[in-house]
């Protein structure tokens, strides 16, 4: 047995190659690790940038919720007081809403925002129609309830978009989305309180039902704010504490209780504004989001620095690797020459194979061409070779007989594909043509063909065949089927009937004349359709009855044109087996349509 020393003596480059492999393998492993780290850094930076953009979108949505809620409250006060208490701050409130609305409508051009849903489309339409709504308010042409619903619908869509933004960008594990939704719900309770207080202050009286409803709103408000504490960090909690300390609801209830104890003519009830509530809640949200943005920006900077360091290391490693790669190329020059020689040999073999294929095609065509030039009226066929093969294992042949108006017709399907399958057919083609031209009966031709194929073909090579004798004088056909698919018969009323195969494939077993019993078919009443199994297999798992039904419908639809029928089938994909379709039809039948 040869040793390593023997190898080194015979080929000095053997030891060098071993050393290079031992050195390069760890270098490649280290390079893979560094490249993997760099890719991970890229992914982290991309994800952080996505979160940063999403948080900015959430800030805009939160500010627009505040602006619309403030405008809703101010508008409600105008409508309830019939325009007598027009708020001096209405102009600035509307300007703030318009500024944020313009930014919101630009979200369609910004990434990481769900702007393809109904909420965005409905909200965009409502914001664009806002000037018309304001005009109706200024002219007192709209009820407080309708106006309140208009603004509330926009706020609801904004909150749903905020939630969808979090889901789209996988932000639900971040607490800012939860806090945003909770505080927005709390603001809704403030808006409802404002709407309830406006008529109370206008009529200067408070009913027990009003008091109970105000207490319920205050309770729900405190529950929402307390729930937000669970998800907030220290800066946000400080802002929320300040928000709760200035509890105007508590002051409002004290005034209401004082009013109930006093006379109905008490006049010390004054409108209590709640704009500061929205300001403080927005401050809490934005403080949290700003903190999140600072953290994300720091992480992006940190990852960028680490990525630059990784790129420097990778560049050094690549230079080192290229040096060793050059050495390997020099050592492998002899191997390259060997590969080149083998490639040239392979090309030579392929060229010889192509030349042999051309010669075989010429010989095959010369043998079969004369048989395919005969085509009486009413006989039409098409053959589609299997994908990737120039030769076909399917074949159709027509031959004259000495008797006028009588033709012999043959359709074949050999085992396999390509040239090997086509060669299997040549002996049968020669027997069929020679015996037909000499006037032999179909039974004699079938038995002779079977005996010949049984003698010369290997055991795994068989030929399915269908023999037809056409008598155009009597307008009838004699059909004998050896292992081809069932023959389809279509009458003038488009009623289909199947004729099963009569025998095993040719060459499989001995055959006597007594066993050959052709079927007699009237040509005036039927169209005869024969096909190879490739046509049935191309229907991709359809049951036989269903496949034949589709074939019959397609035949009638395509006016009995076999090439069009096959083209229609090939629309679903290339053929995996040779496909042949032969149609024997009375000329009048071609005019029948569904």
UniProtKB/TrEMBL annotation:
<feature type="transmembrane region" description="Helical">
    <location>
        <begin position="19"/>
        <end position="39"/>
    </location>
</feature>
<dbReference type="Pfam" id="PF08376">
    <property type="entry name" value="NIT"/>
</dbReference>
<feature type="transmembrane region" description="Helical">
    <location>
        <begin position="314"/>
        <end position="333"/>
    </location>
</feature>
<keyword id="KW-1133">Transmembrane helix</keyword>
<dbReference type="InterPro" id="IPR013587">
    <property type="entry name" value="Nitrate/nitrite_sensing"/>
</dbReference>
<dbReference type="GO" id="GO:0016791">
    <property type="term" value="F:phosphatase activity"/>
</dbReference>
<keyword id="KW-0472">Membrane</keyword>
<dbReference type="InterPro" id="IPR052016">
    <property type="entry name" value="Bact_Sigma-Reg"/>
</dbReference>
<feature type="domain" description="PPM-type phosphatase">
    <location>
        <begin position="375"/>
        <end position="586"/>
    </location>
</feature>
<dbReference type="Pfam" id="PF07228">
    <property type="entry name" value="SpoIIE"/>
</dbReference>
<keyword id="KW-0812">Transmembrane</keyword>
<dbReference type="InterPro" id="IPR001932">
    <property type="entry name" value="PPM-type_phosphatase-like_dom"/>
</dbReference>
<keyword id="KW-0378">Hydrolase</keyword>
<protein>
    <submittedName>
        <fullName>Stage II sporulation protein E (SpoIIE)</fullName>
    </submittedName>
</protein>
<dbReference type="InterPro" id="IPR036457">
    <property type="entry name" value="PPM-type-like_dom_sf"/>
</dbReference>
